[in-house]
Structure formats: C-alpha cells, structure tokens
Write a structure and sequence with these properties.
Layout lengths: L3 H38 L4 H6 L52 E7 L1 H13 L6 E7 L13 H12 L3 E5 L8 E3 L2 E3 L4 H19 L5 E4 L7 H20 L3 E3 L15 E3 L5 E3 L10 H19 L12 H6 L44 H8 L18 H4 L1
Parallel strand pairs: 1-2, 1-3, 3-6, 6-7
Antiparallel strand pairs: 4-5, 8-9
GO molecular function, one term: hydrolase activity, acting on ester bonds
Organism: Rhizobium tubonense
Pfam family, one: DUF459
Length: 399
C-alpha cells in the first residue's frame, strides 16, 4: 500500500510531464516552420547544385534616363514630279464632210470581213464629199453554201439598186466546208471541190465586170489557226487567177497581217505606223485598227478608179455661195492698181531668150523608176555588173 506522500507526488509528476511535452511540441513546431522557410529560401537549381551558388550581388539600381532631346521640326522636302510618259501625237482624223448629191458610190459586199472593211472605208473617205460607202455584208455567208445565202442571185439586184461606181468584194472566210448545191456534195479540199469553187468565183466576178463596173477583190488575211491560214493561201490563189482573168483587180493584204515568215500576228503596225492590236482574241475577227488597215490597202486603188471625186478637198459652188462674193468689202482704194507695162518683145528683161510655151511639150513622158514600181509594179533593170544583174553576157564580147 502506497504512502500518502507518494500519492501526492504522482499528480505533480503528471502535471510536470504534460507541461514539458507541451513546451517540446511548441518548440518542435517553431523549428519545423523555420526549417521549412529556410528550405524555401535556400532551394537551389540544378546548376547551383553542380557549380555552387554565385556570390551575392549588390542590388541593381536603375540609372536615371538621359534627358530627352528636343526633336527638330521636320522639313518637308519637295518630291520631284513623276516622269511623264512620252505620248506620240497621232494625226487628227479629218472631220466628216457633207456628201454631195452627185457623189460616187462604192459598194462593199461579202461576209463578216467585208462588213469590217466597209467600216474602215467609211472612215477613209469620211473627208471626201464626192464618195459614199455602201456596205452589204452577210456575216455567215460565202460562195459554198448557196442554200443559206445565194450571192449569185442577190448581187444583180444590189447592183441595180445601188448603181455603184466601184464594187469591192471580200468573201471566203466561211467557205472551208462541204459544198452543197448544183448536184454537188463534196468535202472541202478535194479536187472536185476546188474545181467547182473556181467556177463559182469566176461567175461571181463576171456579174460585176460584165456591166463594165470596176471590181476590187480583197484577199483573205492570216488567221490564228495554222490549218486555216494554209487553206487561205490556196483560196487567195484562186481569187487572184479568176478575178484577173475577167478584168478585175486582186488586192493582196497578206503581208499586213503576217510576220516576216508569213505567220499569223495579233499586233502590228496600223496606218500611222504605231503598234496596235489588229486581231481579236479568237484569231479570226479584226479590231477597229485592223479594219482600218484593210481599208488602207483598198483606198489607193479605189481613189484611182474614182478620179477627182475621191479628192478630200473638193469644193462645191452653189449660186447662193457665189452671190456672197458680191458682198465682200471693197478694197481700201477705189482706184484700180496698175503695173508698169512690160514689152513682150524684150525677153532679155527676165534673162531668157524665148517666151514660155514656145517649145511644145514632149509627146511622151518617160515614167520614173518610182512611178513604174508604184503604179505598175515594175522594177528597173539592175545596172550591168551588179550582183543582181542576171543578164547573160555575149561570149564574144566577154572574150
């Protein structure tokens, strides 16, 4: 049995032990918190673990920014003007003239190319009051499909109604197809086809020349299709041979729409020498400059056939205009101006020995080489000994 003193010591020991444990627990919590904070502060990276932590550096204090410089006002520099494009001045088109009642008529007939040619000729003769252009073009017509449009029957009626001074024909662009009619059913390109086509061209040209009307037949140009271009070469040969055989004139426009090798071109020189687009995107139709260029080839022979009526500066004298001459202001002096008489029997006054017109003009005038080339297409013979002189020398004279 325990003593009373021992029983008193037991509660005291328990209280002391509880207090000690509480103090130890508090200290352990404080130490763990400090260690955790220290571990957070001393956490090192992989590089710091390998190479060590660098020495502490002094705290960086940013320097004060330098004072701003006052910007000077910008001076606006005058920019030079852009270079101006050189514009080539084209000659002004003559103003359309009022046509005379007695103006001669040019009848243009054919397919869609003839319609464009008529527009070009109307521009070419716009300033000529003595010339009127009348165009009858059927876009899809030709000399092959007479069942679609028969030119052989339509042309005589047109000639009777128009009474033209010159007839211009441009046809054939639609004729590369099977020939139907006159008991024929031939494919394009056969010998029978070409023989029948020559007969139709000849008969068509005779309708005009039999009435003693000048005929100008315009050939076909190149086209975008190489096969069509090759066929047009054959057709142009037929036109030239058949038309010239009945007294007509064939106008070749091939070089104006082809390059130096005779192939199709889209752009080329217009009537003013400027590079322009002559053909449309389909390689068949003509642009406005192209139509005017075709008319340029026809204009010269047409003016030659029309004579003075085709002159652009022809004037018309009416009685009303003639009466206006009487209303002109009088001269400054009413006295007529007199000149000193000159003796006709004293030709030495002007340094001559005889009067003008004393000698009769030569009966024949020799044409110059230029006139022969332009009007008749004849070239002068090459001088003897030149490289293009192909005349054979007499063997006796050479020796």
């Amino acid at each position: 049995m325990k003593s009373p003193r021992a029983c008193e010591k037991v509660p005291f020991a328990r209280a002391f032990l509880a207090s000690f444990l509480a103090v130890c627990f508090t200290l352990s919590c404080l130490v763990s918190a400090a260690e955790a904070q220290q571990r957070v502060e001393q956490r090192r990276s992989l590089l710091e673990m390998l190479f060590g932590r660098p020495a502490s550096q002094p705290e960086y204090i940013p320097e004060a920014p330098p004072p701003r410089r006052t910007q000077r006002p910008r001076v606006k520099r005058s920019t030079p003007p852009p270079p101006q494009k050189t514009v080539v001045a084209r000659p002004e088109e003559p103003a359309p003239a009022e046509k005379l009642d007695s103006a001669k008529k040019v009848l243009v007939i054919g397919d869609f190319l003839a319609s464009g040619l008529g527009d070009g000729l109307a521009d070419a003769f716009a300033a000529s009051p003595g010339v009127v252009i009348e165009t009858h073009g059927n876009v899809a017509s030709g000399l092959v499909r007479q069942d679609y449009y028969d030119w052989q029957k339509q042309l005589p009626q047109m000639l009777d109604e128009a009474n033209p001074a010159v007839v211009v024909i441009m046809i054939g662009a639609n004729d590369r197809q099977q020939m139907v009619g006159d008991q024929l059913n031939e494919k394009f390109g056969s010998d029978v086809w070409f023989i029948a086509y020559e007969a139709r061209v000849l008969a068509f040209a005779k309708i005009v020349t039999s009435r003693h009307i000048p005929l100008l037949w315009v050939g076909l140009p190149t086209f975008g299709s190489p096969s069509m271009t090759a066929d047009c070469v054959k057709l142009n040969q037929i036109y030239q041979s058949q038309v010239e055989s009945v007294g007509g004139e064939f106008i070749d426009i091939w070089d104006g729409f082809a390059d130096e090798n005779g192939k199709f071109i889209v752009t080329g020189s217009d009537v003013n020498g400027q590079q322009v687009r002559l053909r449309t995107a389909d390689g068949v139709n003509l642009t406005a400059p192209g139509r005017r260029k075709v008319a340029f080839y026809v204009e010269k022979p047409a003016r030659r056939l029309l004579g003075d009526q085709a002159s652009p500066d022809i004037t018309r004298l009416d009685t009303d205009k003639a009466g206006d001459l009487a209303g002109l202001p009088p001269s400054e002096t009413n006295q007529p101006q007199r000149t000193q008489p000159i003796s006709l029997s004293d030709p030495d006054l002007d340094g001559g020995a005889e009067l003008l017109g004393a000698k009769a003009a030569p009966a024949t005038v020799t044409s110059s080489p230029r006139d022969l080339l332009v009007e008749k297409g004849q070239t002068a013979p090459a001088p003897a000994g030149r490289v293009d002189d192909y005349r054979l020398l007499d063997t006796k004279t050479a020796h």
